[in-house]
Design a protein that fits this description.
single chain; alpha/beta; Aconitase, domain 3; 30 strands; Aconitate hydratase A; aconitate hydratase activity; AconitaseA/IPMdHydase_ssu_swvl
């Protein structure tokens, strides 16, 4: 039986009335995305049509999910809200704080010892406030959500950018910062600018070596890492219905890599099969009663150009396997062209590691198809040329693939089976030799491949591809290997051709597990004590940020002018820094240490205008803060791309940064800055980026007139006394300006004014 089935039935009970009313107001057929949006309005039944990309709208999500790294700060904030219990079903998942090194058993034991304080804190807070808690080793948040909580037509938010994975079951699942989650957990509305819509029509059928992963790798190549910003991507067509539910999840998962608000698919038989297989036939029974409301209207899919802001068409029958990278997930290369690309660009051809797993590709089907390649290699006497590791997506997946012999197949090739956790995908990988920073290549089935992300080595060229392609490439040890056309040489010197992968969509004997790792909360948590040691270096109770004093910011110093790509990994690194995610002071020591200074092209080396010396970014920020000098950060395009981590906004706020001025923002990061009481500004004229000099002092000229739609004027005073006045745009509405005035959105909640 499904979790929260009565809540799900309630959603379905109002859907028809709300969607019918929305269709009447909009005056045309509706996409699936619009049906879910209009059926989840905070006000209930819709009373007006909204403009895509313009109107801010209040929504009522059905549930919230948090992973352990971001849950710490989210729950520390929730403790300030003064609520006795969460207002909507909420879960916490311990998947980020487990490092991959030796293997599952040893690595999990080490994590349980090293992070015991954090896990105990999350367990007790969850127990107190009515939150479902998934223990370390239970699995990766998004796989567990897909297996247990996602449902067609629902809306959820999660404190991880890959919350969008639940779109594989027909949800609108959206990644947010912890402050947004606190709003919903506190029983308040959640605000989102009504998204634009991108339609992706899938024709034909996947075959041979091509996998669902190749669909999103192709879409990323088309749209780039910012092409989906402010939009929902909705997939439809015969190609969509011909695909497995977990394959759909993979595609939606990597929608985060194109900046999309979320991605989704219409309700179909693959979802029915998956729900039934995961013991949720009761959802199927309820969903079937409103099935027409759980997919786009037929007229929409027949004439998509009339209803979507942009339409992409992909013929799956002609789609080639893709290998995207290095250093960015949107650089797509079809396997047939990889040899020429790799040689021309000087990429290391020898593959050192192949890694399968992460929230993107860790399903039963993924593991089965990859194992079918490994099985062939073992049968033909081929010794793999690269090391190989897997992360099952959940304990249910791990237990089932062990029962069905899939793990044994992997182990015949010397594969390391890591914990059911994120591991190398988020930098939680103690890779031997990475500290030497040698130039090398790895291939993985993860979602992101930014510099240093997997192993901390800036010279690791990481390429993203499907699990089956990872297996083939790892076995060959050669980035230029094309399994469709090329042969391998076995240990006897014989030529061997790999057959295309195969694997069951769902286990023939059903899923099985002894202990899934779930801890239900206390019925009444009022007597549960949550203790945080004042001497802890892992956890720190939060103090509210100061409210705005109502005056113009003057005498501010330029902290850093970031050059080029500046993701949340650059602003607040993961990896070993994850251990400080619950301690704002300690985690702030990683603030912007990965960003490249435009003036010297070096990372973590900026000028302290007080002393004239160069120092680490956090050190300079702390010096300014101690001296009572405000500072600002300047950046390039798509600033804050990547994770939903709000630490990338909280750290600058904590260290005295007053504003971030960039050419453009990634959606989640812009919202996170606003929530924390920061000024998130964009250049009205992007060329003004070049006018900003290293020794500038900045004065705001009209912040006292801060208002929706009114640009702000900033005076940049250069070292020689000359000045440039730069116009900065913003997207603040009245309520968001209220967050700024109060010092943060949380301050309003705590004061009972939100």
């Amino acid at each position: 039986m499904a979790f929260d089935i009565e809540m799900i039935k309630k959603v379905y009970g109002t859907m028809a009335e709300r969607v019918d009313k929305a269709r009447e107001l909009v005056g045309r057929p509706l996409t699936l995305s619009e049906k879910i949006l209009y059926s989840h309005l905070w006000e209930g039944n819709p009373t007006q049509a909204f403009s895509r990309g313009k109107d801010y709208v209040d929504f009522a999500p059905d549930r919230v999910a948090c992973q352990d790294a971001t849950a710490q700060m989210a729950l520390l904030q929730f403790m300030h809200a003064g609520k006795k219990t969460v207002a909507v079903p909420t879960t916490v998942h311990c998947d980020h704080l487990i490092q991959a090194k030796v293997g599952a058993t040893t690595d999990l034991a080490v994590a349980n010892s090293q992070s015991k304080e954090v896990f105990d804190f999350l367990s007790s807070v969850s127990n107190k406030y009515g939150i479902g808690f998934w223990k370390p080793g239970s699995g990766i948040i998004h796989q567990i959500v897909l297996e247990n909580y996602a449902f067609p037509g629902g809306m959820m938010i999660g404190t991880d950018s890959h919350t969008v994975n639940a779109g594989g079951l027909g949800m609108l699942a959206i990644g947010v910062g912890g402050a947004d989650a606190v709003d919903v957990m506190s029983g308040m509305s959640w605000e989102l600018k009504f998204p634009k819509l991108i339609g992706v029509k899938l024709t034909g059928k996947l075959n041979g070596w091509t996998a669902p992963k190749d669909v999103i790798l192709k879409v990323a190549d088309i749209l780039t890492v910012k092409g989906g910003t402010g939009a929902i991507v909705e997939y439809f067509g015969e190609g969509a219905t011909n695909m497995s539910c977990t394959g759909k999840g993979t595609i939606c998962n990597m929608g985060a890599e194109i900046g999309a608000t979320t991605s989704t698919f219409g309700y179909d038989d693959s979802m029915r099969r998956y729900l039934a297989a995961t013991d949720r036939q009761d959802i199927v029974d309820a969903a079937d009663k409103v099935a027409d409301y759980l997919t786009g209207d037929a007229e929409v899919y027949a004439n998509p150009e009339k209803y979507f802001d942009q339409v992409i068409e992909i013929n799956l029958s002609e789609l080639e396997p893709h290998i995207n990278g290095p250093f960015t997930p949107d650089r797509g290369t079809p396997v047939s062209k990889m040899k020429a690309e790799a040689v021309a660009n000087g990429w290391p051809l020898k593959i050192e590691w192949g890694l399968i797993g992460s929230c993107t590709n860790s399903s039963y089907e993924d593991m089965a198809r990859a194992a079918s390649i490994v099985e062939q290699a073992v049968a033909h006497g081929i010794t793999p040329k690269a090391e190989f590791g897997i992360n099952p997506g959940s304990e249910q997946i791990r237990y089932t693939i062990e029962r069905d012999g899939i793990i044994a197949t992997f182990e015949k090739m010397g594969t390391k089976v890591f914990t059911n956790a994120c591991g190398p995908c988020i930098g939680q990988w103690d890779r031997a030799g990475a500290d030497k920073q040698e130039k090398n290549t790895i291939v993985h089935s993860f979602n992101r491949n930014f510099s240093k992300r997997a192993d901390g080595n800036p010279n690791t060229h990481a390429f993203v591809t499907s699990p089956e392609m990872v297996a083939a490439l790892a076995i060959s040890g050669d980035l230029t290997f094309n399994p469709i056309t090329d042969f391998l040489i076995n240990d006897n010197g014989e030529e061997v051709k790999l057959n295309p992968p195969h694997g069951d969509e769902l286990p023939k004997r059903g899923f099985d597990v002894e202990d899934a790792g779930f801890q239900a909360p206390a019925v009444d948590g009022s007597n549960v004590q949550v203790a945080v040691s004042p001497t802890s270096d892992r956890l720190q109770l939060l103090a509210p940020f100061d409210a705005w004093d109502g005056k113009n910011i003057t005498g501010a110093k330029l902290l850093i002018k970031a050059f080029g790509k500046c993701t949340t990994d650059h602003i607040s690194m993961a990896g070993p820094w994850l251990r400080f995610r619950g301690h704002l002071d300690n985690i702030s020591n990683n603030m912007l240490i990965g960003a490249v200074n435009a003036y010297n092209q070096e990372a973590n080396k900026v000028k302290n205008q007080i002393t004239g010396a160069y120092d680490a970014v956090p050190a300079v920020a702390r010096a300014y803060k101690a001296a009572g000098v405000p500072s600002i950060v300047v950046g390039d395009h798509n600033y804050g791309e990547g994770s939903s981590r709000e630490h990338a906004a909280m750290e600058p706020r904590f260290l005295g940064v007053k504003a971030v001025l960039v050419k453009s923002f990634a959606r989640i990061h812009e919202t996170n800055l606003k929530k924390q009481g920061m000024l998130a500004l964009t250049f009205a004229n992007e060329a003004d980026y070049d006018k900003i000099q290293e020794n500038d002092t900045i004065n705001f000229l009209d912040l006292t007139e801060f208002a929706p739609g009114k640009p702000l004027s900033l005076e940049f005073v250069h070292a020689d006394g000359s000045k440039d006045v730069i116009l900065a745009n913003h997207t603040y509405n009245d309520s968001q300006i209220g967050w700024y005035v109060a010092g943060s959105a949380l301050n309003l909640i705590a004061a009972g004014k939100a």
